[in-house]
């Protein structure tokens, strides 16, 4: 009984590897590099290297197909959005050899494409920020429907093929019409469908879900306490919370509508002024803060393994509220940004904590129910690997 996990340098891959390995399941970890975060874990049975999915997608898929065949892999877990997309293109070949822990490719694209997702949310009465839908980079003249600047520019997809190669996209904040036009003029991937949205000021919250063809099997909720970059991005400190009913209802309405099968993380931002939870995006795969749910008592990787492999799913009735998970090096990046960059450069919202407050909060290393995402005494290999990669990137950046 073995599972193959892709994208070994992702923190989600490490969380999956540990969660399954602790259940005595053999985990194979693939990555583009000789060493990887998840591949350094004691719970990784074997680590292997594959060609870059960006530069050689065919070679990447050929290696994965060979591995699942030779190793008689019971379940394949694609971690990244690109892995989901590429494996989806040859889904029939993988389905003939193993079980893929992902919904049908067409269903995945419906929710992972923010442009299509926001259209669907409108149809299902799920709150979204005031939005302009921009087709093929054609900016509308009238922006009044999305309010005043600053505005948020979101590509529909997180990765887009341009000139035969896959390109990562990113969300941008713009402060005036001139900057908006410049961003659209100079960014090739904004020739694809994109969104211009009103900036929502408030707390990021999310619903983690495991669904069986649209039926909820396990649910979990969290809130973001700190992010990098500080104005909004990847969470570096987060906390488990009780399921907020309106938000959970919105998430389940979307997942039920498409008959979702597998895991998903539905992200919202709760507006400080109104308390309304606005849909931000859906990650139809394992997410960066997965370890929080595991630490709070919901082992999503193992529950997914039971579901995909046709075994009875024994989900816990609940989970522990108030558990915190900290990505230490990500939190260090947050602190450095706050200390050495101005609020204007970071484009922080009103009411952001002071630099002194940020430094004091960072120094709170020991708290009740605080868990470190990567650093684990019984499994220190990933922490050393992450630190080596972090220092190497810093030295390279200064060269």
UniProtKB/TrEMBL annotation:
<dbReference type="InterPro" id="IPR011761">
    <property type="entry name" value="ATP-grasp"/>
</dbReference>
<dbReference type="GO" id="GO:0005524">
    <property type="term" value="F:ATP binding"/>
</dbReference>
<dbReference type="GO" id="GO:0046872">
    <property type="term" value="F:metal ion binding"/>
</dbReference>
<keyword id="KW-0547">Nucleotide-binding</keyword>
<feature type="domain" description="ATP-grasp">
    <location>
        <begin position="118"/>
        <end position="309"/>
    </location>
</feature>
<protein>
    <submittedName>
        <fullName>Carbamoyl phosphate synthase large subunit</fullName>
    </submittedName>
</protein>
<dbReference type="Pfam" id="PF15632">
    <property type="entry name" value="ATPgrasp_Ter"/>
</dbReference>
<keyword id="KW-0067">ATP-binding</keyword>
């Amino acid at each position: 009984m073995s599972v193959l996990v892709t994208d070994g340098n992702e923190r989600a891959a490490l969380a999956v590897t540990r969660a399954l390995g602790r259940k005595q399941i053999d985990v194979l970890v693939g990555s583009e590099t000789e060493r990887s975060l998840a591949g350094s874990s004691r719970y990784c049975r074997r680590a292997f290297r594959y060609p870059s999915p960006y530069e050689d997608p065919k070679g990447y898929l050929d290696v994965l197909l060979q591995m699942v065949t030779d190793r008689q892999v019971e379940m394949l877990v694609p971690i990244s959005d690109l892995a989901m997309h590429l494996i989806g293109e040859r889904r029939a070949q993988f389905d003939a050899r193993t079980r893929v822990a992902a919904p049908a490719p067409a269903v995945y694209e419906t929710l992972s494409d923010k442009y299509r997702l926001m259209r669907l949310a409108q149809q299902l009465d799920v709150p979204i920020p005031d939005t302009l839908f921009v087709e093929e980079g054609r900016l509308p003249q009238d922006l009044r429907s999305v309010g005043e600047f600053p505005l948020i520019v979101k590509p529909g997809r997180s990765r887009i093929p341009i000139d035969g190669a896959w390109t990562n996209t990113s969300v941008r904040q713009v402060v005036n019409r001139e900057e908006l036009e410049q961003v659209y003029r100079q960014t090739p991937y904004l020739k694809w469908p994109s969104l211009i949205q009103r900036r929502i000021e408030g707390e990021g919250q999310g619903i983690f879900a495991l669904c069986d063809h649209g039926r909820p099997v396990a649910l979990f909720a969290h809130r973001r306490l700190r992010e990098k970059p500080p104005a909004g991005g990847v969470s570096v400190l987060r906390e488990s919370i009780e399921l907020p009913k309106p938000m959970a209802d919105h998430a389940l309405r979307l997942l039920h509508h498409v008959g979702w099968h597998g895991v998903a993380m539905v992200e919202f931002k709760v507006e400080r002024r109104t308390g309304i939870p606005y849909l931000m995006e859906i990650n139809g795969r394992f997410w960066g803060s997965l370890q929080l749910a595991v630490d709070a008592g919901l082992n999503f990787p193992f529950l997914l393994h039971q579901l995909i492999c046709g075994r009875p799913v024994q989900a816990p009735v609940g989970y522990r509220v108030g558990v915190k998970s900290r990505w230490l090096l990500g939190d260090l990046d947050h602190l450095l940004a706050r200390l050495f960059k101005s609020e204007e450069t970071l484009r922080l919202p009103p009411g952001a904590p002071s630099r002194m407050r940020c430094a004091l909060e960072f120094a709170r290393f020991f708290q009740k129910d605080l868990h470190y995402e990567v650093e684990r005494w019984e499994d220190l290999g990933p922490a050393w690997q992450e630190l080596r990669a972090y220092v190497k990137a810093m030295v390279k950046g200064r060269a």
